[in-house]
Structure prediction request, 140 residues.
Amino acid sequence: MTEALTIGWSNARAEASRGLYRRTLGLNLFLHLLIGLACILLPHWISATFGLPGPIPAGWVRGWGAMLILVSALYTPGLIDPFRVRLPNLIGLGGRLWLTIIWLFCGGGFLWFALFDFLFFVILARLYLRFLTNTLMTRP
Prediction:
C-alpha cells in the first residue's frame, strides 16, 4: 500500500491545507480590518492615497469602512471551521469576484481595490478547493 492511500496521510494533508487556508483568510480579514479602520479614522488619507474623489461628505468612506469591518466579522465562523461552515466562505468568494467586477467598472483609483479583491479571490478559491478536496478524501 502506498503512503497516499493511508488515512493518516490523508488526514495530515487535510489539516495542512486547512491551516494554510485559515492563515490566508485570516490575513485577508486582518487587512480588511485595517482598511476599514483607516476608512473610518482617515477618510481623506484613503481618498488621496488611492486617487479617489474627495470624501465630501466624509460619510461615504466611513460607511464603506464600517461595512468592510462588518462583512469581515460575519466571515468569522467560516474562518473558525471552514468545512462545517461553508456558506460564508462560498459567499465571500463570490463577493470578491463580484466586487472585482464592480471596481473595474468604477475605474480610476478603484482599480487597486479590483486587483486586491481579484488576487485574494484566486488565492482563496484555490486554497479552499484544495482544502475541501483533501478533507473529503479523508472520508472512506
